[in-house]
Amino acid sequence: MSDLNHLQINSIEAADFLKTLANSNRLIILSRLLGKEMCVGDLEKDLDISQSALSQHLGRMRAEGIVATRRESQQIFYRIKDARVARMLRLTYDLFYLENQNDALDIPSSASVIIFPKACVGCEQMA
Q1: CA angle, 97 as apex, 92 and 102 as ends, to 5°?
Q2: Domain boundaries, the chain
Q3: What sign has the CA pseudo-torsion 56, 63, 39, 122?
């Protein structure tokens, strides 16, 4: 396979991956799942998103192989399945949160907990 063919195939896969992540609600959901698993009920309590919207986002990410599930009794737990997600969240954090801090923007301290939990510091383990 030529380098161009290989690049074309990889660019299609990359575009599909980025399309799945290219939603603010999905980024927030994934940031909450970074380094841990959570049940749907806890995600719903944490996030300002309707149960039906949360289910749709989780369903799409599950279908795309981004998250995986585990059932325990009546609860379904979600976790990040694709290690590239942790790397992408870390990069997004560096590019958008740290860059904004360096530009002296007034970001509430709670924003880092909601958007990028402290678990992000240890996400090298997932990469």
Answers
A1: 130
A2: 3-125
A3: negative
Note the helical H segments in 22-122.
24-33, 40-46, 51-63, 83-92, 99-102, 109-115
Write the burial class of residue 77 (CB in 10 Å: 0-12 exposed, 13-18 middle, 19+ buried): middle
Amino acid identity for residue 123 in this structure: C
Non-local (6+) Cβ contacts of 24 within 8 A are: none
Query: Is the domain defined by 3-125 classed in CATH 1.10.10.10?
Result: yes
Structure tokens at 37: 């698993």
Say which DSSP state 65 is in. T
Q: Mind listing the pLDDT tens digit for each residue in 19-61?
A: 999 999 999 999 999 999 999 999 999 998 899 999 999 999 9
